[in-house]
Each structure stands twice: as C-alpha cells, then as structure tokens.
Specification:
- The chain has a five-stranded antiparallel sheet with strand order 1-2-3-4-5.
- Helices cover about 25% and strands about 50% of the residues.
- The chain is built from two helices and five strands.
- The chain is an alpha+beta fold and about 110 residues long.
- About 15% of the residues are buried.
- The protein has one domain (about 5-110).
- Helix 1 (about 5-20) packs across helix 2 (about 100-110).
Length: about 110
C-alpha cells in the first residue's frame, strides 16, 4: 500500500502538475487517459491570505474506472509581503489501489509527460 500523502509521492504529483498545466492556467485538463480537475478557493486581505486547492484526478479506460484520487493543498501567507507561513498537501484514494496510482504518477513524472 502506497502512502499518497508522503513527500515521495507528492514530489511526483507536483512535478506532473507543473508539467501538464504550465503556469497553472487550466482548471480542467487531461494527461494521457487521466482527467484532472482543479478547484481553487482563496481569501486575500492586508495581513493574511490563504489558498486551498482540491484536485480530483480520474483515470479510466473506456467505461472502466481504474482509479480516482483527491489531493488537497493549502497555503497560508502572512504580512505585507505575503510571505509563506505554512503549506500542506494530502492525498486520498477515492477509488482504486494506492500502489497503482503511485506507480502511474511516478512513470508519468519520470517520462516528462
């Protein structure tokens, strides 16, 4: 069983996120046979701001569901320069096997998808 909140997995996840969505402009896109949907929620004020993103990734083959993954990221900024205070990420399997998901992300990230 793979830990999808581990630093190792999340490094591959971040790498594929950056490669597949340059400049992070899209809220919905595909990587091979996987659909990626992002929802962003943010609050900004003079002294503090935060951003939460929910990423739901679904891999299918025809009508068959291979797996579905949720990754949530949270960033907290403080002060007039909005310096980062905290950043957290967590992954949760919604459907499928964590080892299959981790292996797929590793292969995609290493191949430069």
């Amino acid at each position: 069983m793979a830990n999808l909140s581990s630093a190792h997995f999340l490094r591959h996840w971040r790498q594929l996120y950056a490669l597949s969505n340059p400049k992070f402009l899209h809220d919905r896109w595909s990587v091979e046979d996987m659909e990626w949907v992002r929802q962003r929620h943010a609050f900004h004020s003079e002294g503090i701001s935060f951003q939460i993103e929910h990423h739901v990734m679904t891999r299918t083959a025809g009508r068959k569901l291979h797996w579905r993954l949720l990754v949530t990221t949270e960033q907290l900024f403080f002060g007039p320069k909005h310096e980062p205070v905290r950043s957290t990420e967590a992954g949760k399997v919604l459907d499928g096997k964590s080892r299959e998901i981790a292996d797929w992300f590793r292969v995609q990230a290493e191949s430069g998808a």
